[in-house]
Amino acid sequence: MEKDSGVELPSSEAPEFELPMKTAARQAAPRNPRRSLAYTVLGRLMRGVLVAMWRALVAVVAGVLNLTMVGGLVLAAFVAVTQADLPTPEMLKEMHLQEPLRVYAADGGLMAEYGIERRRPVPFNAIPPLMVKAFLATEDARFFEHQGVDLKSIARAAMSFARTGERTQGGSTITMQVARNFFLSREKTFQRKFAELLLSIRIERSFTKEEILELYLNKIFFGHRAYGVSAAAALYYGKQLDELNLAEMAMLAGLPKAPSVNNPISNPQRARERRNYILRRMRDLDYITHTEFQAAAERVDQARLHRKGVDLEAGYAAEMVRRHLVTRFGEAAYQQGYRVTTTIEPRLQRAAQDAVRKALRAYDRRHGYHGAEAKYEVADADDEQLDLLLEAVTRLPDLTAGIVVGASAKAAQVYVGGGKRITLRLGQVKWARPFRNENWRGRAPRRVTDAVAVGDLIRLRRNRQGTWGLSQAPSVSGALVALSPLDGAIQAVVGGYYFNDSEFNRAVDARRQPGSSFKPFVYAAALNQGYTPASLVRDEPIVVRYGRRRAWRPRNADHKILGRIRMRVALTQSRNLASVHLLKRVGVEEARNYIRRFGFTLEELPRGLSLALGTAEVSPLQMAGAYALFANGGFQVKPYFISRIENGDGEVVFAADPPRACLDCWARYRGSSAKTAALGRADGPPNSPLAERVLAPGLVYEMTSMMQDVIKRGTGRKALRLKRKDLAGKTGTTNEVRDSWFCGFQKDVVTVAWMGYDRFRPLGKRETGGQAGLGMWVDFMRKALKGKPQAILKPPRGMVKVRVSKASGRRVSSGGVGEWVRAEYAHALQGPKPVAYTGGGKASGKAGQKTRGKKGRRASSAKAKQRAPRVIDDLF
Fold first, then answer.
1. Which residues of 779-815 are buried (b: 16+ CB within 10 A; e: fewer)?
2. What would you measure as the largest C-alpha separation in the chain, in angstroms?
3. pLDDT under 70 in the chain at which residues?
């Protein structure tokens, strides 16, 4: 190593830089060996430090680069995974707004609406431009400038948060809100927010700005179940969008940020402040002039809830539709905007509801007052406290709830809400004899306090003259269904007094014994075997034994026997013994198989002779569908209640095309022609399915004629009040009068009315089918047939008129009564198994008489104790 003015370093350890040059004076000075060594050591130390620093810097830079690369890879992977979970552009194009299920009557009137979201979607061009600007001013003023994510707004919101520590500004754009509302949850996580950003960009690439605004303005929530600007305008102002003024537009634009806090109904002051803020924003953005701003800001807001009620109250029918749609479409039925048009005729539906409610109130009034629904302590209660008590009471149509706040012998004060009081005097409560049981009432009130007391929760009803009187919520139940015999379209259905009080649809879902209203099907089975209305049947005692020591002894309602009588008389007077004997001759299995033609299943039909007395368990709707075959001439139609279903896009997804009966093949109105179709297919409208004719025309005519006699001279005489000759039907009453029925028809409508207790309690000995059920039926048919001409039913081809003896049913040359029968049976009127006529006017000396005398009474009493189980008890 050569010596010089400095210490020479090995070439391998040469520094990558040079130390500063020493001055010439110092270089010329003689060197001190110790000082040279110090310099050498110091140089090496400095070099080591600098090398270490350099290597550290290189490592840091490499680490940062590596971290950036790793972060980039992680971010890329995260983006890839998140994007994979996001909807595709095709899915975005198929976005649908949630719309409720709407149910309509046959005339297009709204019956019901189901769904959480009340929405009325409108296209973008139907939204006023000024309303769009109101929303842009408060939600996203740079909407038309950004591509889904507004970095300036995000930065401004971040700076505001850093400065104040509070979220005073938001960075979300309208596009981001659309992404969140349609596809994402509202959880506050980084992954959800990142997905929102990515999805917003994808939405901007898939939709135009106008399309995004249309989705947004139809989707957002405005409070009170209103979604979308159109629904909000209708709810708060009762207006269409183009009818709103500037102040109202700004008020609505302020709702989505906080629908409950900024609500003009619940917080009008806060809502007004929010409205004026939006108006200032619109002015600052030059959307409106200063003059327009001042005028709008000073306007008094007129917001109130404009809840559009239904056009037709038909809760039971609407519920049938809801259940059907949920079964078919699942929960999507509430969200996809399905519009269902039913077969319900509003005029008939209202008539049916009125008839059922009137009949149930009348029944309860006939059987006495059940007392107060509840009792309250009201001595120190003010009107506000009384109002709270009344708010919890179930509302019932035509029956106003009230609380007795004062009572004396001559009058009572009843509070009915809203500060209103009604005075009841003795004449208005005198009907209210206390209910003891279904056949017994207590003494009529002599004082007002005999009927009501202070604290009683009671019901009031106003009569046609406007006078209030004491009433009560019916304890009995009822149902009515009416349908068209032409195709089975259900035109009216009522399953109880009020759907909101009891949702159980007794017209469709109840299974009750129809009693004697089932007899026509048994008689039709007999006619099918060759019997005629003139055939004799035995109205005589019969004992049906089952088991070793058990026997069923059916009896007539009046406990009389008429001996041997014609089938027409037996059905007209609803003779139980005659019907059981007739079924025995026909054969139970043969009858069951034939009755299937009326729409019943074998499983529903008992295998014993009790079938003749209506011990099958059926619904009023089933009975209406079965009677339709008598009304239309024997064509098999099935009841239905939905005529059309449309989806949210207005596309028809279902259209009913039911088999139809022949329109001109049966009864007609004067001036129209009629023809008779044979068994098989009927003539009908072009391209319409044709109903099959399963009953012979002559047989149906004979049955209709006999059921017309039920009304003219039998158990259905109450229907004569309608003063019509084109009505036919049959009463039905079950054992101990647990069920009261009337099933009847006219050319254009089949109606079944039923009354009974849900718990099978007896109605009372006078509440037979000819009283309770028929009363309801008559009230309905009076309105249903108003203005309709009388229909004419002429005997079909293949029938002849013969004269028969009233007593024997045999043909006579003179006298007797006329009887139309099928020509093939004109010379064998008594059928395949004729009953011998014993002569003597009545069939026996005791016919038509009750058992008399002490011994007779004992025998009758002994027989009465030998009662069979309810399911096969005597019915009529």
1. bbbbebbeeeeebebebbeebeebebeebbbbbeeee
2. 174
3. 1-42, 49, 62-97, 116, 153-171, 183-194, 672-687, 840-876
Answer yes or no: are the C-beta atoms of 618 and 515 closer than 8 Å.
no
139 in catalytic set: yes
Question: Strand 374-375 relative to strand 411-417: parallel, antiparallel, unpaired?
Answer: unpaired
β-strand pairing of 456-462 with 468-471: antiparallel
φ/ψ of 550, rounded to 5, equals -115, 145
Instruction: Pick the closest to residue 98 from 253, 232, 223, 227 (CA basis).
Output: 227
User: How far is the C-alpha of 759 from the C-alpha of 757, rounded, in Å?
Assistant: 5
Reading the block at residue 330, the tokens are 């699942």
Out of 172, 484, 516, 610, which one is annotated catalytic? 516
Q: State the Cα–Cα distance between residues 597 and 699, nearest whole angstrom.
A: 14
Residues 413, 414, 420, 423, CA torsion sign? negative
Helix (H) or strand (E) holding 338: none
- If you count them, how many residues does the chain have? 876
Which of 320, 327, 310 lies closest to 342, judged by CA?
A: 320
Rounded CA separation 595/526 (Å) = 11
State whether residue 462 is helix, strand or coil.
strand
Residue (of 345, 350, 349, 317) closest to 107 by Cα position: 345
Instruction: Dig out the tokens for 449 from the structure.
Output: 């306090």
**Residue whose entry in the numeric block shows the structure tokens 């007052």:** 369
Q: Which of 139, 214, 438, 767 is catalytic?
A: 139
Q: Which of 576, 873, 620, 628 is closest to 748 using CA atoms?
A: 628
Strand partners, 165: none
Whether the model pTM is above 0.70:
yes
Closest CA to 699 of 629, 610, 596, 603: 629
Q: Does 516 qualify as catalytic in the annotation? A: yes
Residues 337-349 have pLDDT tens digits of 899 999 999 999 9
Number of C-beta neighbours around residue 68 at 10 A: 10
- DSSP-derived secondary structure letter, 6: S
